[in-house]
Design a protein that fits this description.
It is a single chain. By secondary structure, this protein is of the alpha/beta class. Helices cover 50% and strands 12% of the residues. The strands form four sheets. Strands 4-11-10-5-6 form a five-stranded mixed sheet, with helices on one face. The protein has a three-stranded mixed sheet with strand order 1-3-2. Strand 8 and strand 9 form a beta hairpin. Helix 12 packs antiparallel against helix 13 and helix 12 packs across helix 14. The two termini are 41 Å apart.
Length: 375
């Protein structure tokens, strides 16, 4: 059937036999961003309930904003009150049934895993045993994770470490009370990070990109704060040798040609660092960070923070990358967690420092060097 063979940008990767109908397969092909129309009309709720739920999710305590959103509340009520066209009603009901049938299949298959892919963000469905095997192989290969064998959840220890450092910074007037409040963990939502892998079907064997989902972990807000502090400086310093997108590359090449540097013997070389975030040695990364901060600080400070303060925050983040996986607790002992905001800027700084000789060589010989960094 053509629906299984037509290649589209959102074509899913399915490595198990699901016996999908063409309609079910078509729904997967729609991709992760597809929104099924008018599904709220099929709920057994009154218009008042639907409007109240949606309005409450966006209302705020700010009086001016509240007044503005009142008009939106009336608009929502008006939209829900209007009858759907017959064509749209039929479509909504049909797609609702298709989704329910897919959910039924997935609930019956505990042996499969469904994930978004790493780059293209389309559906990937594979065997749960393969995911487990690849995760264990990755942990063994990188030696970046250490199992916590005492059976105690490390979240309490992580929280204590964060609070101790924030107390230290506040008492020395490095952090204001408001800053302290902004980067303190939310005690009502506090939880340990958990590991999951995103499949990379664009690479041989479909390896997994390790992600530690740590949105409510104790160090998350400190990680984001330090990333925001350093990322702007890094981008300013490294902008000349950083490719943010394909347009950057084209502009560099156009200038290279315009300056008459392109020769028949010119070689274009690309490289990729496998498992960058987990292969960076923690101490080496911290040393690179210290050199970077010393070089680009003003009077030994970046903002209100001394280099020592920054290094204390960086070490706190790296020392408290803990997560749960497969009913076990782990601590990351090498590199940084993919999913932690600070990890990205730390990896970029490490690579920038590590490649200084190459950068200088290329500049001296009027050649191009660039590294892709996404922000």
């Amino acid at each position: 059937m053509s629906i299984y063979t037509t290649i589209t940008a959102s074509l899913p990767f399915i490595e198990v036999d699901l016996n999908l109908t063409p309609q079910q397969m078509s729904m997967f092909i729609n991709g992760l961003k597809y929104i099924i129309p008018c599904q709220s009309r099929l709920y057994r709720k009154s218009i008042e309930q639907l409007v109240t739920e949606q309005y409450q999710s966006i209302s705020t305590t700010d009086e001016r904003t509240k007044q503005t959103f009142q008009a939106l509340e009336y608009l929502l009520h008006d939209l829900y009150s209007k009858p759907l066209t017959k064509k749209l009603t039929i479509r909504a009901q049909r797609e609702y049934k298709i989704v329910k049938s897919i959910q039924h299949i997935l609930r019956q298959r505990s042996d499969i895993v469904i994930r978004p892919t790493d780059k293209s963000k389309v559906f990937y469905i594979g065997k749960a045993t393969d995911f487990g095997r690849k995760a264990e192989e990755y942990m063994l290969k990188t030696e970046a994770y250490q199992e916590i064998t005492n059976g105690r959840c490390p979240v309490v220890y992580n929280l204590h470490a964060v609070q101790t450092l924030l107390d230290y910074l506040e008492t020395r007037h490095v952090l204001t009370k408001q800053q302290r409040k902004n980067i303190s963990p939310n005690m009502n939502k506090l939880e340990l990070g958990h590991y999951h892998g995103l499949p990379k079907p664009h690479k041989s064997g479909t390896p997994l990109r390790p992600i530690v989902a740590c949105i409510h972990a104790p160090v998350t807000l400190v990680s984001k704060f330090l990333n925001d502090l350093l990322a702007t400086i890094y981008l300013k310093i490294a902008r000349e040798t950083t490719f943010i997108n394909g347009i950057d590359v084209i502009r560099k090449l156009e200038k290279y040609v315009k300056d008459d540097h392109l020769q028949l013997t010119t070689k274009f070389i690309t490289g990729d660092v496998n498992d960058l975030y987990t292969m960076i040695p923690s101490e080496g990364a911290l040393q690179a960070l210290a050199r970077f901060c010393i070089k680009h600080s003003q009077q030994n400070r970046i903002g209100t923070f001394t280099i020592d303060h920054i290094m204390k925050m960086a070490r706190l983040i790296l020392d408290n990358n803990c997560f749960a996986y497969n009913n076990k607790y782990y601590k990351q002992i090498r590199g940084g967690a993919m999913g932690s905001a600070f990890t990205q800027v730390l990896a970029n700084i490490y690579m920038y420092e590590w490649k200084q000789d190459l950068i200088k060589h290329q500049a001296l010989n009027k050649e191009i060097y660039g590294r892709f960094a996404k922000y």
